[in-house]
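Troubleshooting entry. The earlier prediction with adenosine-5'-triphosphate gave an output that would not parse, so I re-checked the input for stray whitespace and re-submitted. Clean input:
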Amino acid sequence: MTELADLEARANAARRRTGEEGLVVCDNLVRVYRTDKVEVQALQGLDLVVGEGECVALVGASGSGKSTLLSILSGLDLPTAGRAKVAGHDLLSMGRRERLGYRRNTVGFVWQQTGRNLLPYLTALENVALPMKYARVPRRERAARAAELLGVLGVAYCRDRRPAELSGGEQQRIAVAVASANAPRVLLADEPTGELDTASGEEVFAALRRANEELGATVLVVTHDPLVSGQVRRTVRIRDGRTSTETLREQGGAGEEFTVLDRAGRLQLPRDYVERYGLRGRVRLTEEPDHIGVWGEGPDSSPAGP
Ligand SMILES: Nc1ncnc2c1ncn2[C@@H]1O[C@H](COP(=O)(O)OP(=O)(O)OP(=O)(O)O)[C@@H](O)[C@H]1O
């Protein structure tokens, strides 16, 4: 191996170890909100790596920090500490200009409230063309790409209608087109099906999937909708501002749940295990040839038996 190739191989190995191979990398991310009297720790050291091309569902109880994470990834909010990198942009240190370019070209965003995604006085086509105007795409190209996007997302028939003349589901599918206008590497969606009935929700999720599969965007979608989380390969659960478990499922499969091991080697045991085995305070670890055993402290649960 040449010296250069050797250096590259070592650099790649180091990158793999630190998880830098992901398009989205969050490392020990902390976000503390401070108001007059209270301090809320919305993110408490969250780790997450998402590879290019993935479609990931983020789930978790209300208040667990999902929207906070999405605001940070969209470049709208700043973390208090930790590291967040998206497509090579360091979200903590980037300046005003880079942030503007990042929000315009690298990420696209779909909000839950349909009214927040589209301008009411523009037609669907004009709404989709608008982000391209900001990115200085020539007029003719804007109209052609906007029409193409509406076609790919199954809402070509809506092109000349204004939001008030569209159903909630149609508005959200057009919002996916708006968010995809400048071919973002990452598409973020915060409960995009939350205000919709099941059938419309399914159509909106299908549009997100098309943005992922056909337009090549990496998709992160916050959802309470089991229909959505049941259809993606990877579901990440956030608990108390940290990633706690992940479910990976092969196409059409039931899915297997994993617990997330963070960089420091910490893992959170599922609550039912903790209760079932009476684990509290300290636990004993035993090393087996192919696994690690976790034992309670009491005499009955010692590895050697009573
Ligand atoms: N601007 C803010 N100021 C103060 N506290 C905030 C602010 N935004 C969020 N929080 C708090 O941070 C915590 C995480 O909120 P976040 O909205 O990220 O949760 P979530 O998982 O998205 O919840 P939901 O599913 O209800 O949208 C909550 O305790 C919330 O009250």
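This one parsed fine. Residues 273-306 form one domain.
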